[in-house]
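B., you asked whether I could sanity-check this one before it goes into the benchmark set. Here's the sequence:
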Amino acid sequence: MDPGWLIRPSGLVPYAEAFELMHTLAERRLAGEIPDTLILLEHAPVYTCGKRWKPEHLRWAQAQMEAAGAELHFVDRGGSVTFHGPGQLVGYPIVDLGPKPDVVGYVRKLEEVVIRACADAGIEGLGRNEVNSGVWAADRKVCAIGVRVMRARVTLHGFALNCSTDLSWYEAIVPCGLTEHGVTSLSEIAARWVTVEQIGPHIVRHFESVFGLPRGQVEPAGSSSGAD
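And here's what the prediction gave me:
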């Protein structure tokens, strides 16, 4: 098996740029041109609405979001509305699930990656919700997951882990459309500053182990979104 690619852009990546990159890579993965790939990045402030969004999940109008410095995008993943921004580690795996994809199993693997990575960073006690996807600290979500499977085979979108995220951004929405649950961050849970830079290497290591990718990822030259 070829080593997987790791693409790790520097700085805050505009959402539209990452959206284009992940779709381009997914098409290439379908064509067998590239190996499984993990994009890890931070976004500039943005709200994204998946296929299950409802108007009542947006507490602010788009103009109010933009005045606060955030964009609003309507996208092709599952789930409802979420926030991406500084202090949040976003992962977009481009993975070939094979001819008989187990999408639920794939989501469970993403949750496992995050739970293990956080435990490595000294943040124990995170788990799953019996009904809703993601990673949870009791009834508060610390990591949202929303995916799409292109042509019933290759994954798009992924997970968003709040590390040191300013949680006031979530006041604009009903996160994931869940009115009875709140959100939190690793920094809030641990009562200490937990950064994207600290968590990133743990995510990479456990993504390798959970998904069975060999060591020695390659960052492809010439990829967009500022990958280096």
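One thing to flag: Confidence is low (pLDDT under 50) at residues 221-228. Otherwise nothing jumped out at me.
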